[in-house]
């Protein structure tokens, strides 16, 4: 019995050291990131927004982000847990595609980017692909009476390249894009 207690105590100490080292590495690694592991807060028109959390934009004069299965509630982050064989899920995705095609009739039969029709695992993804933003560019240009070239240049300027040029895809933060869109003359 005494041997088991000693072994359990040793294992506990080893695991505390391993977990402690892991936490130091993760914490230290977060400090080299642009936001140093903190939320990115943007103040616009006297309101504070978290750029790291998806925001809902319903107006046709704004770019729309990924759908959210948690109604953009950061306290309830999570996915729908419905897979591609679930009939209800397939109906939801088809409704989103139909809505996107109605909102963007200029795109006719262009393929709808996947992130505009499916929610992310957290339900709070703040980013879309450059293709997702370009899919909406004609609608935005028309509604705001701007040239499509202006909108495309704005998207290009707001596109974040992969971390270190190789890690992850290019992406566009929808909140930052819409704020820049409001500032466009």
- Secondary-structure content class: mainly alpha
Rg calc = 22 Å
Order of helices and strands: HEEHEHHEEH
Poorly predicted spans:
none
Total number of helices: 5
Strand content: 5-15%
Strand order of the largest sheet: 3-5-4
The count of strands amounts to: 5
C-alpha end-to-end distance: 78 Å
Overall pLDDT confidence = 87
Helicity range of the residues? Answer: 40-55%
Specify the overall morphology. Answer: elongated
Q: Sheet bearing the most strands, described?
A: 3 strands, antiparallel
Compact description:
The protein has helices at residues 2-30, 87-103, 130-144, 148-158, 174-183; strands spanning 41-44, 47-50, 127-128, 159-160, 171-173.
SSE arrangement:
Layout: H1 2-30, E1 41-44, E2 47-50, H2 87-103, E3 127-128, H3 130-144, H4 148-158, E4 159-160, E5 171-173, H5 174-183
Antiparallel strand pairs: 1-2, 3-5, 4-5
Helix pairs in contact: 3-4, 4-5
């Amino acid at each position: 019995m005494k041997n088991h207690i000693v072994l359990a105590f040793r294992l506990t100490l080893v695991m505390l050291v391993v977990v402690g080292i892991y936490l130091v590495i993760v914490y230290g690694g977060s400090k080299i990131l642009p936001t140093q592991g903190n939320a990115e807060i943007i103040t616009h028109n006297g309101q504070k927004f978290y750029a790291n959390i998806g925001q809902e934009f319903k107006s046709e004069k704004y770019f729309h982000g990924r759908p959210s299965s948690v109604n953009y509630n950061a306290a309830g982050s999570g996915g729908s847990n419905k897979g591609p064989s679930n009939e209800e899920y397939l109906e939801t995705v088809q409704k989103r595609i139909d809505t996107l095609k109605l909102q963007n009739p200029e795109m006719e039969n262009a393929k709808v980017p996947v992130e505009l029709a499916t929610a992310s695992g957290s339900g709070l993804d703040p980013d879309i692909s450059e293709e997702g933003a370009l899919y909406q560019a004609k609608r935005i240009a028309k509604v705001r009476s701007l040239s499509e070239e202006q909108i495309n240049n704005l998207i290009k300027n707001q596109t974040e390249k992969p971390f270190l040029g190789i890690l992850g895809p290019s992406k566009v933060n929808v909140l930052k894009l819409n704020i820049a869109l409001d500032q466009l003359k």
